[in-house]
Specification:
The protein has 628 residues and is of the alpha+beta class. 29% of the residues lie in helices and 23% in strands.
């Protein structure tokens, strides 16, 4: 029997070991799934929808090859709506996934011309007209025709460096990219808009190739093998012992006589009989029955305790429906990249004092102030430069919740310490993207007040709504805040708006307010007169809602300082700064100097007991001229 068990153990062990090894070798599942296609027709752009990349679970690996110039190939991804808005009227090839075959297929797409509705939607957004490329030579045309491909005769926009992308890869880094994107995000593959996009596209998904039973089968087989060897050795040992010499038994011993059986008499019988014996039997029977019932009771109690009882079904908490919620204009990582690019561009423009470089990333009041500063520094070497735009860290981000253009994003960036180790005020930026193909530009760049308290804002993952300039739901409509604050700078506490603005922590009011203006007028000689006027600047009024139904308002105020000669033969000195902008050191008629104020306010909701508070500002001379 031991030999039979040993043989059975050997057979089962061999089967288990072979099965375990086969799972890791012969029957091992594939480690990935791959789908590929070749794009024909030399398109400028190839778009892969998020549903294609999510055809199989797991992290996607996108491989693109076949670009005319590998150094210029680009792979970027963004929201599907943003990608299509950026493409606009550009033709592209869409990549689809075929479930039946598991391969990729392509389809040429020609977008329909967008009708301008004036609503500011992405469909009606104006996009730059693609620049024309040189007409291809006959030889190039013949080569393209012979290869069966139709080359485009016009170049499209270059997608490289667009602020619209959530992530971007170029050059050799674009050949193999790993990503894990949702269905509402698409990938755009291109070169530089002039050369065709890479023609070979493949997507790879990982497959769970683990074999959880391989190791237990191998270990179990080895254990059975050892058991089989032990059984076999035991069988051999027992068999050898059983084959030893045996001696024959001699004659049997005679049997001993049997002793007579003892029969007790009735006089010495010890076993109780009669009623006592019946009583003992009756006692023994209930005890046995009680024990049986006790055991039965334990079994019944166990079954009752293990029977599940009905409990109240918990109410399902449904997540808020996000179908009608607009997405934020940018994500936090996307904003970090944008701010870093702006910081690098601003540093180059400041170092070269180049207004042309500044125009790449600045617009409106922020550009006006920087252009004036460059012009002043060109003639006045001791003029300080404007505060640099730090690249990081972003301590506050407030994107607009929208899927149309223009888009607005606010960010507060912590400034590094100066050369002496002193703390510097954080910089608050207001960024505006006019069209899908435009990058974000700085419209306002202000330094926050030391005691500024920013109210509660919506998280960056949700975004905030933009408040209309004429909204009456605030203490003051955003379009009237600049004029009201300008009146306070002119008249101080006598202004009709003084009760609506908080004077605490307002350092601009102490620098250029009514008291300062009065001192400037008193210092002017009798041969001249000094007057001040203020009016809203040309910058757009930007307001973004806060959680308490108020708004953060960015506005532009322009103030003119007019020094006029009132006595014949007298001269009016322009001053070094005004002379650098106007080119006139003194005048017999007068000098007008214009100052720009970029202002950021917190405006509480209408009916609130709070006051309008200045959060930050940037100011400087933006123009100067001689009075005729």
């Amino acid at each position: 029997m031991r030999f039979v068990l040993a043989i059975v153990a050997f057979v089962v062990a061999a089967v288990m070991i072979v099965a375990g090894i086969a799972q890791r070798t012969v029957f091992a599942p594939p480690s990935h799934i791959e789908a590929a296609t070749t794009v024909s027709g030399d398109p400028r752009y190839v778009v892969i929808d998020g549903s294609v990349l999510n055809a199989h679970p797991g992290q996607q690996t996108l491989t693109v090859t076949g670009a005319p110039q590998g150094a210029k190939q680009l792979v970027a991804y963004g929201r599907t709506a943003d990608v299509k808005a950026w493409l606009g009227d550009q033709k592209y090839v869409a990549v689809r996934y075929q479930k039946a075959t598991g391969d990729l297929a392509t389809k040429a797409v020609t977008p329909k011309p967008a009708r301008s509705t004036g609503t500011g939607t992405s469909g009606s957004t104006a996009t730059p007209t693609p620049a024309a490329t040189p007409t291809p030579t006959p030889s190039a045309t013949a080569g393209a025709a012979s290869s069966g491909k139709t080359a485009a005769t016009t170049a499209g926009p270059n997608p490289a460096g667009s602020d619209l992308w959530l992530e971007e890869f170029d050059g050799t880094a674009a050949q193999v990219t790993r990503m894990n994107i949702p269905d509402d995000v698409s990938v755009i593959v291109a070169s530089d808009g002039q050369k065709p996009a890479p023609s070979n596209v493949s997507v790879t998904w990982p497959v769970d190739s683990s074999t959880p039973w391989a190791f237990p089968l191998i270990i179990g087989g080895l254990v059975l093998l050892v058991i089989g060897i032990a059984l076999y050795l035991w069988g051999l040992y027992t068999h050898r012992r059983s084959r030893g010499p045996r001696r024959k038994s001699g004659p049997k011993m005679p049997k001993l006589p049997k002793a007579p059986k003892y029969k007790p008499t009735a006089m010495i019988e010890t076993t109780p009989r009669g009623r006592r014996s019946t009583r003992r039997a009756r006692v023994i029977l209930p005890v046995a029955l009680a024990g049986a019932l006790a055991l039965t009771g334990c079994t019944a109690g166990t079954n009752a305790a293990s029977t599940p009882s009905k409990t109240a079904t918990p109410l399902a908490t449904e997540a808020p429906d996000a179908a009608g919620q607009l997405p934020p204009a940018v994500t936090v990582p996307q904003l970090e990249r944008i701010v870093k690019r702006i910081s690098e561009s601003a540093a180059q423009a400041d170092a070269k004092a180049s207004a042309d470089l500044a125009k790449e990333r600045f617009v409106g009041p922020a550009l006006e102030l920087r252009e004036a500063n460059y012009a002043i520094r060109a003639h006045k070497s001791d003029e300080p430069a404007l505060p640099a735009i730090p690249a990081s860290p972003i301590v506050l981000s407030l994107p607009q919740a929208t899927d149309t253009w223009p888009r607005t994003v606010a960010a507060v960036i912590q400034s590094p310490k100066d050369a002496k180790g002193n703390e510097q005020a954080p910089i608050a930026l207001t960024l505006v993207q006019k069209t899908p193909r435009d990058n974000y530009q700085v419209e306002y760049a202000v330094s926050l007040e030391p005691k500024a308290k920013v109210p509660n804002l919506a998280p960056a993952s949700i975004g905030a709504a933009v408040v209309p300039p004429d909204s009456k739901l605030l203490e003051l409509p955003p379009e009237k805040v600049a004029a009201a604050y300008g009146d306070i700078l002119m008249n101080g506490d006598k202004s009709q708006y003084a009760s609506q603005f908080n004077p605490e922590g307002d350092t601009l009011r102490t620098q250029v307010g009514a008291d300062w203006k009065a001192k400037q007028k008193a210092a002017v000689p009798a041969t001249a007169s000094l007057t001040f006027t203020s009016q809203p600047g040309s910058g757009a009024d930007v307001a973004m809602a806060t959680n308490d139904s108020g708004a953060i308002v960015w506005t532009d105020l322009q103030e003119s300082q007019i020094l006029k000669v009132v006595e014949a033969g007298a001269d009016a000195s322009a001053g070094a700064t005004a002379a650098a902008l106007s080119g006139v050191a003194s005048s017999k008629t007068g000098i007008q100097s214009d100052f720009g104020y970029q202002l950021a306010f917190y405006v509480p909701p209408a009916g609130s007991k709070e006051k309008i508070t200045l959060l930050g500002f940037a100011q400087g001379m933006v123009a100067a001229k001689q009075i005729p």
